[in-house]
Design goal:
Layout (H helix, E strand, L loop, with lengths): L16 H4 L7 E4 L4 H12 L4 E7 L9 H12 L2 E6 L8 H20 L4 E2 L4 H13 L4 H4 L5 E2 L2 E2 L7 H10 L16 H17 L3 H29 L9 E2 H6 L2 H12 L6 H12 L4 E4 L3 E6 L2 E6 L12 E4 L2 E5 L2 E8 L12 E5 H4 L2 E6 L5 E2 L8 E2 H7 L4 H4 L3 E4 L14 E4 L3 E2 L12 E8 L5
Helix pairs in contact: 2-3, 2-7, 5-8, 5-9, 9-11, 11-12
Length: 462
């Protein structure tokens, strides 16, 4: 490894490299964005003799991101490792981070297979684990969420989950490497950044302890519990008739099991991705005989007949009826329409303004403290930010690239009590999700409180 020490103790990590990379065989892929965590991982993997190949994935998320591949290639050359570049197209929709992550892992797996590597190493640190646990708490996750990220799952390996982020930055400094700085890591519009910069420091001050260490340690304990529950739930699912939807499940077997295991078995039967807790509870009610059937998003009905649970696709499911509106407290968090909406208030103007599609900033006093998340009525209009005239919500969604069949059920955030008629109450719309806010609640020089709104796919998970 050119330009770097061959002595592990000089890299200032508390445990030998052999323990962190136990069981791995060369060569390996290292997901390398050029940031301090992934760059340190690349150096450590080379130090351990794993013959790493740095793979940079460009999401096209910001101007100049493609040029970062050349920077990572330079780091790889200096460290004496291999290098490969991947470019992905992130599909449209809410929660850019989640969609980009999925596209990134698919690209890394393709690179692993092409390069003949044995594993994909990612540089998640102890700090990342702590943030993940807190994010999952905010989403209402159960034990699986409290377990955070697994150290290994399939070909993905996270060898540095017990290493503080500061230690990884120190590795880069010791080797004379200047990592790439991602401006998104300073933008509180992203909830992970908000936790990192504001919430966790405030909690640590109040608790007078290192909260990151506590959360990471808790994740290790919860991971062992979660893995055990999954194993037992898998055995229960097999006894109930297997994990295949079309085979049906024997309700009596699930009903006789402890409630926690029955929930787990249902989650395994439905997933992946992990279903919201409300869906799991609804199906458990069918298992107990408290309900005859339950309809899930996507036009799937789960019903009970002759003691077994059977799923089926509902005829005409593509033409969904109007869904009831969901009351929203501002600030606050609410789930509905397959989304989770979170809002909070800040006293200072944003350092960097979001694009307004899936994260937006409003004047909190103009928006009020209550809203409703609902479908737009036929012909409903609003005044898009920056315009003076009206536009129908349907036209705005078409402009945003929302497919025609999805526009009728696409949610908007509106004032409570507004009926959504084409000539309805003035200023009823606050935000057309995926497009932009209404101009009448925009931030102005006189704004004193800034209401942040952000949405992510999914809801609380059991």
């Amino acid at each position: 490894m050119a330009g770097a020490s061959r002595h592990p103790d000089r890299l200032s990590l508390p445990h030998p490299l052999e323990e962190r990379f136990a069981g791995l065989r060369p060569p390996v892929v290292v997901a390398c964005s050029g940031g301090p965590d992934s760059l340190a991982l690349l150096a450590l993997a080379a130090e351990a003799g794993l013959e790493p190949v740095a793979v940079h994935v460009d999401h096209g998320a910001r101007a100049g991101s493609a040029a970062e591949a050349d920077v990572v290639a330079g780091f790889a050359e200096r460290l004496g490792t291999g290098f490969a570049a991947e470019a992905v197209v992130v599909p449209p929709g809410p929660n850019f981070e989640a969609r980009a992550r999925e596209a990134r892992y698919e690209a890394l797996e393709r690179a692993r297979e092409r390069l003949g590597a044995t594993a994909v190493l990612v540089g998640h640190s102890r700090d990342d684990q702590a943030e993940t646990v807190l994010l999952n708490v905010l989403r209402g996750a159960g034990v699986s969420g409290l377990a955070g990220m697994p150290a290994r799952r399939g070909s993905i390996v996270r060898p540095l989950l017990e290493v503080p982020r500061a230690d990884l930055a120190a590795v880069c400094a010791r080797l004379g490497l200047s990592p790439i700085v991602d401006p998104m890591n300073a933008d509180p519009a992203h909830r992970r950044v908000w936790l990192r910069r504001e919430v966790i420091p405030a909690l640590e001050t109040g608790a007078a302890r290192d909260l990151r260490e506590v959360l990471a340690r808790q994740a290790v304990v919860a991971r062992a519990d979660s893995d055990l529950l999954d194993s037992l739930a898998g055995e229960l699912l097999a006894r109930a008739g297997g994990g295949k939807h079309d085979a049906g499940l024997e309700a009596a077997v699930l009903a006789a099991a402890p409630e926690a295991l029955a929930r787990r078995a249902v989650r395994l039967w439905l997933g992946p991705p992990p279903p919201p807790a409300a869906h799991v509870e609804a199906i458990v009610a069918v298992v107990r005989g408290e309900r005859r059937a339950v309809e899930l998003p996507g036009g799937i009905e789960v019903s009970r007949a002759r003691g077994r649970l059977h799923p089926r696709r509902i005829q005409g499911a593509d033409s969904q009826p109007d869904a009831p509106g969901i009351e929203v407290a501002l600030p606050g968090t609410v789930s509905g329409f397959g989304l989770e909406l979170t809002s909070w208030v800040e006293r200072a103007a944003p350092v960097r303004w979001p694009d307004g599609r899936w994260t937006a900033v409003l004047d909190a006093d103009l928006a009020g403290d209550r809203a409703v998340l609902r479908q737009a009525a036929p012909g409903e209009r609003f005044v898009p930010l920056g315009l003076t005239g009206h536009k129908t919500v349907a036209d705005a969604l078409a402009e945003a690239g929302v497919p025609a069949q999805a526009r009728a059920t696409h949610p908007i955030l509106a004032r409570p009590g507004a009926n959504g008629a084409a000539e309805g109450p003035d200023g009823s719309a606050l935000w057309v999700l995926g497009y932009r806010i209404d101009d009448r609640v925009r931030v102005s020089p006189g704004t004193r409180r800034f209401l942040w709104l952000t949405v992510e796919a999914g809801g609380p998970q059991g």
